[in-house]
Amino acid sequence: MHTVGEAVSNAIEAVKETAQNVGEAVAEKTEAAVATVSAAASDAKEAVAKRAKAAVKKVKEVKEAAQETVKTAVAKARKAVTKAKPAAKKAAKKVAKKVAAVKKAAAKKAAPVKKAAAKKRAAYEQGAKKKPEVSADTRRSESTVAVGDAATAASAFPPGATLCQKCNVAATILMDGCATCLNCGYSKCG
Ligand SMILES: [Zn+2]
User: Fold this and answer.
1) Which residues are 178's β-sheet partners?
2) How far is the CA of 172 from the centre of ligand 1 (A)?
3) Domain span including residue 65
4) When you count CB atoms within 10 A of the terminal residue's CB, does the N or C end of the chain come out lower?
């Protein structure tokens, strides 16, 4: 025969069991949920890692490509410079050659002029010797005193000499009725 106490005790037992079952189910569900979440998280992590790896790889590739491009450009520039160097040297040599040629031509041109001037000067000096009353030395010293330092450079020419319109040196004298420069050989009579 069942007593009230027994019945209550049984009811409590039943509730306990139910509670335990519910708790177990909850725990199981929770575990499963946790597993799912953790699996998803793991998947996500892997995916992110994979993507990050791919991105790093791409960056590396881009970097390498850029480095290669820079390398190629530098090599090209170096090559161009190396190529340009002998060309510049060649051009400089050419210019030097031209300058030398111009100098030579100028010297060649100047040579006969100098010769003619010297000839005229010699002729003048000979003429001066023939006329002892016009002493070139006396006149020269007079002019040097009068004109001073400014005339020192021109003092090698006769004191009566006038400025030459061609070379701007006071070396033009009258020779045989014709103004002649003793410095550059310029003559008004041609
Ligand atoms: Zn002159």
Assistant:
1) 175
2) 7
3) 59-190
4) N
